[in-house]
Amino acid sequence: MTTTIIFESMNDQQIWDIANPIMDNLMDASTQLDHARHVRDFTDRMKAIVTPAYLQRVCQQYQSEKGYFSNRVPVAVFRRPDSVAMVWKQSFTKAPGEFVAEMVLVYKNGRYLVDHAVVF
């Protein structure tokens, strides 16, 4: 089954059901500075970007400035021909206000993989 057919055949809830545990793992692994667990669902492209040193640097910076990830609320699903993007409203333990958590999933070799993720 192609990626296009996979995502087109799913409703939003089915996509959230796949995406939320993956994002939970990303956030928990970054809190724990656990590189192997953080990148376990990444595409090869993302694994090349998020090295152990990169993850350490980024996580230490956001943790010192904003604290840890706290409440996350789904906002929207965006379908593309070969991927799906999700956006959540994200909170931190120290920084006031609302932030955006975003993740792009692709389907390769029978797995859902993260091809982009960011919190801003």
Layout of helices and strands:
Layout: H1 3-8, H2 12-31, H3 35-38, H4 44-49, H5 52-66, E1 69-79, E2 84-92, E3 99-108, E4 111-119
Antiparallel strand pairs: 1-2, 2-3, 3-4
User: Span between N and C termini?
Assistant: 34 Å
Strand order, biggest sheet? 1-2-3-4
Structural class: alpha+beta
Mean pLDDT: 95
Q: Enumerate the spans where pLDDT stays under 50 for 5 or more consecutive residues.
A: none
CATH superfamily: NTF2-like, domain 1
Write up what this structure looks like.
The radius of gyration is 14 Å and the shape is globular. The model has no long low-confidence stretch (mean pLDDT 95). It is α+β, with helices and mostly antiparallel strands and 120 residues long. A four-stranded antiparallel β-sheet has the order 1-2-3-4. Helices cover 42% and strands 32% of the residues.
How would you summarize this macromolecular structure in one to three sentences?
42% of the residues lie in helices and 32% in strands. It is of the alpha+beta class and 120 residues long.
Characteristics:
four-stranded antiparallel sheet, alpha+beta, 120 residues, Nuclear Transport Factor 2, Chain: A
